[in-house]
Write a structure and sequence with these properties.
The structure holds two protein chains of two kinds.
Chain A: E1 5-16, E2 19-31, E3 36-40, H1 47-55, E4 62-67, E5 70-71, E6 79-82, H2 94-98, H3 100-105, H4 110-122, H5 138-151, E7 156-160, H6 168-184, E8 188-193, H7 196-202, E9 205-209, E10 216-221, H8 231-236, H9 240-251
Parallel strand pairs in A: 3-8, 3-9, 6-7, 7-8
Antiparallel strand pairs in A: 1-2, 1-4, 4-5, 9-10
Chain B: H1 2-18, H2 21-57, H3 63-66, H4 69-82, H5 85-116, H6 118-133, H7 140-147, H8 151-175, H9 179-187, H10 192-230, H11 235-244, H12 248-276
Helix pairs in contact in B: 4-12, 5-6, 5-8, 5-10, 5-11, 7-8, 8-10, 9-10, 10-11, 10-12, 11-12
Classes of the chains: A alpha/beta, B mainly alpha.
Chain lengths: 255, 283
């Protein structure tokens, strides 16, 4: 079957006055529909760059990015991007925040509005729709940010350290929350994180990148014995520790 | 609406009942302190004017040169009876309001243009810096020659004083908008105009309002100087005229009125800010 996301021989070079930075080199990766892939790597290895390339915000220096077999050329509705912080706008209510993407892409109509209200209802934010972001908890804000991303109905979700601004307890809960929403909406997801445990707990596959220039060091198929796969349950699986140690070794962290 | 108010009242009552004696004591102390501060402030004001008045009566100071509160009040009453008091106040206030409104609006428009074209912004930067450090009042005679000795010159004076500061301030606000927020709308495919209207302008709204606050003060400077130079009416005119005919009562009275008017206008803008900028940011 065809892959929903394909990276072919991706290379990325940044130019600055101090010279050029070789951020990514020779990246080949294919993601199946409905799959959850995590990307881990040392800081500055070009993880986030990879997401920017898939979203079409950046163009690769070498190689090509294909989505559903078509080469990416600029941003599209196929891909939804979640950033590190929720970045809900203080001057908009939750509802107004959630429809931001629809406004910008010009597909705000009664049908999409209804869909957004339904999403808010399904994920317990309906009664908060007229509140401002400052009145919501961190977890609820993150959920609102996810609904904002889902509103434009992307097939693929890119999560760029999407949980790292939260405190640890909230983060575990939000992991669980977002994971179940992604699975329920049947989306393909690519998560970039520096948190090894988080990457294993959520993903079907974990991609380990090397230091700059980032290349793929290894790809782990995550197979855990869980009754029902959820991030928290994954953390309790007996194999979890084994994956953790292996990825930790591969990351080769020296202080 | 009524329901909500009623609920608020109930909440308040419930809160008062829940309050512990320690907390009540704390609140009492806070209120007491506030009252003492207000009282002291008023006391200073009253003492200042009473001392001035008494010193004049006792010939400790020459009230021909320093004037005297009672003489200032008399002057104001005379002006009022002549029917010119509110005419002069009105002219000056109007010129100031027009000056800072136009200054702010133009400042914001120019800032938007400079935000849009970073090339233009870079090119124009040194000129802005020089214009910013130039005392704009030096341009007064130029405006009089170009525009004529009338209210138009005064308004241009006022707006010139505030324009450059507004541009620098607001442009800086635009440029310091969180890049991640811009990235967010870019991921939805936003074009430059959408970035401006959906993120940059609303995010910089508080900056624009605060520059309005600065502009009020600056416009007063511009207007008064303008009136010194050209006018036939307004508080600046009264001050200059009073100085020329050695009527310090008129000068002092006008300064007093000016102080009150300027303070009121500033409070007006602060109130406007409260209305327009909702504080939803809970860090």
């Amino acid at each position: 079957m065809g892959y929903i996301v394909e990276l072919r021989n991706i290379g990325m070079i940044y130019h600055s006055l101090n010279g050029e930075i070789n951020a990514l080199e020779n990246i080949n990766l294919s993601v199946e529909e409905g799959e959850f892939v995590s990307i881990v790597g040392p800081s500055g290895c070009g993880k986030s760059t990879l997401l920017s390339l898939i979203s079409g915000l950046l163009k690769p220096t070498f190689g090509s990015v294909l989505i559903n077999g078509k080469e990416v050329n600029g941003t599209s509705n196929e891909v939804g991007y979640m950033l590190q912080k929720d970045h809900l706008f203080d001057w908009r209510t939750i509802y107004e925040n959630v429809i931001l993407g629809l406004e910008i892409t010009g597909i705000l109509n009664s049908r999409t509005k209804e869909k957004v209200l339904k999403l808010l209802d399904t994920y317990g934010l309906y009664e908060f729709k007229d509140k401002y972001p400052g009145q919501l908890s961190g977890g609820m804000r993150q959920r609102a940010a996810l609904i904002r991303t889902l509103a434009t109905d992307p097939k693929i979700l890119l999560l760029d350290e999407a949980f790292s601004a939260l405190d640890y307890q909230t983060r575990l809960a939000v992991n669980e929350d977002i994971y179940s929403i992604i699975k329920k909406e049947n989306k393909t997801a690519i998560l970039v994180t520096h948190d090894i445990a988080e990457s294993i707990s959520m993903a079907d596959r974990v991609v380990v990148l090397t230091k700059r220039p980032g290349t793929i060091k290894n790809i782990h198929e995550i197979k855990l014995t869980c009754q029902k796969r959820t991030p928290l349950c994954s953390r309790e699986a007996p194999e979890f520790r084994h994956y953790f140690n292996q990825i930790w070794k591969e990351l080769d962290v020296h202080v | 609406m009524f329901k909500i108010n009623q609920k608020k009242v109930n909440d308040k009552q419930a809160m008062l009942q829940d309050i512990s004696p320690e907390h009540r004591e704390f609140l009492r102390k806070v209120r007491l302190r506030k009252t003492i501060i207000l009282f002291t402030q008023l006391l200073i004001l009253v003492l200042f004017f009473v001392t001035w008045e008494v010193a004049g009566d006792l010939k400790l100071i020459d009230s021909f040169i320093t004037s005297q509160p009672s003489r200032m009040v008399k002057t104001l009453i005379n002006l009022y009876n002549e029917g010119t008091l509110f005419y002069h106040i009105g002219i000056t206030c109007l010129e100031t309001v027009i000056g800072f409104t136009i200054g702010t609006v133009f400042g914001v428009i120019i800032s938007i243009i400079l935000w849009w074209s970073s090339f233009l912004a870079k090119v124009i930067e040194p000129y802005l810096v020089v214009l910013n450090s130039l005392p704009k009042i030096a341009l007064g005679p130029v405006f009089i020659v170009w525009i004529g000795a009338g209210p138009a010159s005064i308004i241009v004076m006022a707006l010139t004083v505030s324009l450059v500061v507004t541009i620098l301030e607001v442009l800086n606000g635009f440029l310091s908008v969180d890049q991640e927020k811009i990235k967010l709308v870019k991921t939805f495919g936003a074009n430059k105009f959408q970035i401006l209207t959906k993120v940059v302008l609303p995010a910089s709204f508080p900056t624009m309002i605060s520059s309005l606050k600065i502009n009020v003060g600056l416009s007063w400077v511009g207007v008064i100087v303008g009136e010194f130079l050209v006018s036939k009416g307004g508080l600046g005119y009264l001050i200059v005229y009073g100085g020329q005919v050695f009527q310090l009562d008129l000068v002092m009275a006008s300064v007093l009125v000016l102080a009150v008017a300027a303070a009121l206008m500033y409070q007006g803008v602060v109130y406007l800010e409260k209305l327009l900028v909702r504080d939803n940011s809970q860090k």
